[in-house]
Structures are given as structure tokens and as C-alpha cells.
Amino acid sequence: CILGTHHEKGAQTFWSVVNRLPLSGNAVLCWKFCHVFHKLLRDGHANVLKDSMRYKNELSDMSRMWGHLSEGYGQLCSIYLKLLRTKMEFHTKNPRFPGNLQMSDRQLDEAGENDVNNFFQLTVEMFDYLECELNLFQTVFSSLDMSRSVSVTAAGQCRLAPLIQVILDCSHLYDYTVKLLFKLHSCLPADTLQGHRDRFLEQFRKLKDLFYRSSNLQYFKRLIQIPQLPENPPNFLRASALSEHISPVVVIPAEASSPDSEPIMDLVEMDTASQSLFDNKFDDIFGSSFSSDPFNFNSQNGMGKGDKDRLIEQLHGEIAALKEELGNFKAESARGTVQLRGRASELEAELAEQRHLKQQAQDESEFLRAELEELKKQREDSEKAQRSLTEIERRAQANEQRYGKLKEKYSELVQSHADLLRKNAEVTKQVTVARQAQGDVEREKKELEDSFQRVSEQAQRKSQEQAEVLDTLRRELAASRQELQVLQGTLESSTQAGVEQSTRITGLEQERDSLSRAVEQHGEEVAALRAELQQLQDTLSLEQRSSKVELETLQSQLRDKESTEQALRQQLAQEQLALLQGTAREAQRMVQDALGRLEDPAHLGCTGSAGELCNCLLSRTLAASECVERLRDAHSKFLSNRAAVGSLLPCLALFAHLISDTLVQGSATSHVAPMEPADR
């Protein structure tokens, strides 16, 4: 049936015959049909799946019909038909998977198109597929009486035979599921994949138990070598555990021929046949006279000139063919070398691009460092402002009775400044987080550069090995040419050396075989190197995309911090301006209070010597004059830098105090002095 599907490139003939079979009335026949159809889906032509999809509904109806029978083959046929339908749907949704599920790691990545969503959905479908396989496995075992040797009976073997196909499918599905889960854990959070891990652990325990039970059955021991799963399931939370995973390999030994099915050939007949074959080959090369009497030298010397010429021409033709093959081998090696050099150039260009990206990342890190230095300076300015506010608060507490209202303002300022300090601490923390993220980016860039260096070294070593292989081929070619020249001279000198010439020709053929094997090995190495380079290129592209995403994230965080910092600056400037305005109003009230006291009757009635009051007035006037100078300097600094409020606030408060005291002292001095000096 399998050969027929490949011959007609489809399964039309198979289904035309199946449609005439009483599958709905004979459970054993339906069971054997499922076994044959399973083999066709695995090993038949690719169009078997396409031709079978039109009968999918009929298989579903037949499965439901056999599901009503709870004894015999009824449940077995129902579950097997569900498995076949699941297999057909899986391969229809995922056409990259062949029927026998044999794929390389690269083909598995291509099946998911390097998209995490596709890998997620593909893992779910594989879980469903493997679940159907395990259900059939368990149903067959539960239908057998394991207390007896059922595997050696015809009835037991009829039920166990399809499990060989199930074991082949399960080994591949388990391997692919493990690899896909490791790939998903490298891209998604562990909590998101908790359901996948739970379902995998359940199927792992079932599959391990079924493999162990199957390996102990005598029926499977001579037909298939069943692998054993590891003692513990893989730890998907540890990425390095993927290197410890060993793909389970199912080995089907070559079927030994039955002694009853092959005729026994007598040893004498075999010896006679082999001798006759050797004689015919000898006659074809050296003529019939050699085989009739190999030691008749007269007959050998009597060989015609035409036979000698024909033999020489035949040897010349073989030598020319060998030279042509050697030339082809040399050309293929040269093409492989050119391709490897081109690939090395591409890798060097990619390395230069990565270095450029690294330089850009370093420039951005320098910019972040500069921003951090500015934030530190602003923090120092804030600390200076805090110290200034503390000094103002201390003075306000010393003059609490006179400056009660100013004390409240100072308290509000301290509270607002504490809020600013907390906000500043948050900004500093965010900057620290940004610096840590930047350090992670630099480490990843360094690791990427190291991996590029290793790839370059491997490519260089491969190039050297290929050069050595080419040199070896050249030396062997020169040696073969020398031997061919010696062989030609020997043919021209004597016909008696025919046996030696045939021996040398055999040696040349062996050398040709060795050269062909060397070239094949070289081609395999080139293919392996190409696969490795492709894998490295995919890894580099993924690393580059992740680096770009991280850089964009850092840039967005930096912009958010800049906007937050700008808002904090504006708020600080507004609060400083409000503080300055409040201090100025309080100073104005102090001066107004002093002016109001000039007309106070209690003040007008004060007594004292004019000299003492005059000296006190002069001292207060000098202090007020010095305070005016300091206030002028602080005011000029404030005009040049609106943020320099720390030096202006103390001068403003002290200036109001000294001016008020000077006014009061001047009024008192004028009251006790004579009229004319008092007016002056």
C-alpha cells in the first residue's frame, strides 16, 4: 500500500478499496484498517493526507458508532479513529510537519516562523495530539490481561502491533514539546506558562510509565528498541537545562530473514558461482587466454598488437576519467572556499554594525551620566537651600514673640522642602535604576561581542582546515599523476607486468574512492558550517532586536524623568518665589509697625540721655547700612539667577529688623534732643 501511494502519488486506489470493506460491521477489520491507515499517514506519499481529508467525517461517525460498544475492539477502534482524525487535523494545520514527524531543530523553528504566539499555539496542539496517543496506549494496555504472556499470543499481538506507530509518534512529540517549552520560557513569564508545565508533567509521567511497561513486553523486544525517559522531568525555569535534554530515539532493528523463507545455497555452488564470476571478469580485462592457462607465457607473448593497443587505450581512458574527477573535486573545493570567504566577509560586516551599535549605546550612556551629574548638582543646591531654611528657622525660634507669623511661614516652607526632598529621593532612585539597566545593556553588548569573536575564530579554523584538505588533495593528485606516468612506462616496456598494472589500477581506484570520501566529508563539514552560521545569524538578529527594544525603553524612561524633573523645577521655583514674596510682605509689615510706633504716646514719653541714645542710633544705623550692602548683592544675584533665593531671604529679614530698630531709635533720639538738632 505504501509503495502504491508513492507510485500513483495519492491514495485514491486505497480508499476505493476501503470503501468496499465492512468496517462498520467487523471490529477486528476496522482495527487493522486503522493500523494500515496510520502507517500510510506516516510513510506514504504526501498526498495521502489530502486525499483522506474528504473521508474525515465518515471516520468521525464510525468512531462514535464503535464508541457505543464497551467490550472487545469497540472502544479500541473508537479511540484509534479519534487519534487518526487528530493526526490529520494537526498535519493539515501544520503542513511543515511530515507524516513521520521527523524534523530538525531548524525546521521546527521555521514551522513556528520565529513567532512566540505561533510557538504557544503549536505547543497546545502538540499537547492535544500527544494526549490522543497516550489514551490509545492506556486503552490497549487496560484491555489486556497483563498477568499472562499476552504478547506471545496472536490476539495480544493484534492489539499491540499498532502501538509501534504510537511509540514512534510519541517520541517525536515529547522531544518537540520539550524544545518548544524551553523556547517559550525564554520569551514569556513563568506564571503565564504554568498551565503548560502542569499539562507537560502529567503527560511526562504517563509516557514514562507506558514506555517502561512496553519495554518489558517480549513482543516489542525483537521489533523495536524503546527509549527510556529521564528520572526527573526537565526544569524549564532553568535555561541551561536544555543542554541536558537528550532526544529519545526509537531504534527499529533490521528484520532478520526467516530461514524458511530463503533457499539454502550449497557451498560448492556458491564457490563455483564466485569462481565463474571472477573468471568472467578476468577474461573481460585480460582476454580468454589468461583464464584458460594463466601460466602459458607463450600464449601471453602471442597476444596481438591490437589487443595491446586496446588495453592501453582502455587504461588511458580510465586515467583521463580519474583526472576529470580530480578536476571536478578541485573545482568544488574552490567554490566551497569562495563561499566560506564570502560568508566570513558578511560576518565581519555584521560585526562592524554591532560595534557601531555598541558605540551608540556608549554615547547614550555618557549622556545619561551627564544628566545624572546635573541631578546631583541640583540635589546639592537643594541641600544648601535646606541648610539656609534651617538657619532661618533657628533665628525665627529665637525671636518667636516678635515674629510669630514668620515662624508659621517658615514651618510651611520646611514642610514643602521635605516634600521636595522626598521627590528628589524618588528621582535619584529612578536614575539609579536607569544606570543599572544601562549596565545590563553594556554587559549584553559585551557578551554579543565575545560570541562574534568566537564565531570569527571558528570560521578561521574552518578555513585553515579546508586549506589543508585542498593541499592534501593537490599532493594526492600529483602522486596519482606520477603513478600514472610510471604505469604508462611499465605498459610500454613490457606486457609481462600485466598483473602488477592491474594491481596499481586497483590501488588507483581505492585512492579515487578515498578522495571521493574525503570530498564528501568536506561537503558535510561545509554544510554543518553553513547551518551553524545561519543559527548564529538568527541569534544575532534576535539580540539586535532585543537591544533596540531595551534602548527605546531606556529613552522613554529618560524622557519621563526629564519631564518629571522639569515639573519639579517649576514647582520649586514657584515655591521659592512664594517664600520670597511672603518674606518681603512680613518685612514690610515690620517697617510699617515701626513707623506706627513713632506716634505711640508711650514711645513719646521715653526718657534718657541724648548721648546714649545718639550712640545707640549710630550703631544701629551702621549695622543697617552694612545690611543694605549685603541685600543689594543678594538682590543682584537673584536677578541673575532666580533660583538663588537662599542668600536673599536672610538679608531681607535682617534688613527689615535693622531698619525698624533704626527708625525707633532715631525717633527716640529726636524726642530728647533740642529742637534744631532734633529736626536735623
Automatic annotation (TrEMBL):
Biological processes, Gene Ontology terms: actin filament organization; clathrin coat assembly; endocytosis
Main location class: cytoplasm
Pfam families listed in its UniProt record: ANTH, HIP1_clath_bdg
Span of the signal peptide: none
UniProt feature coiled coil, ranges: 312-409, 434-578
Any one cellular-component term (Gene Ontology): clathrin-coated vesicle
Keyword vocabulary terms for this entry: Actin-binding, Coiled coil, Cytoplasm, Endocytosis
SMART domains, sorted: ENTH
GO molecular function: actin filament binding; clathrin adaptor activity; clathrin light chain binding; phosphatidylinositol-3,4-bisphosphate binding; phosphatidylinositol-3,5-bisphosphate binding
Domain ENTH as annotated: residue spans: 1-98
InterPro entries (UniProt xref): ANTH_dom, ENTH, ENTH_VHS, HIP1_clath-bd, Sla2_fam
Localisation: Cytoplasm
Family that this chain belongs to: Belongs to the SLA2 family.
Name of protein: HIP1 protein
Species of the source: Centropus bengalensis (lesser coucal)
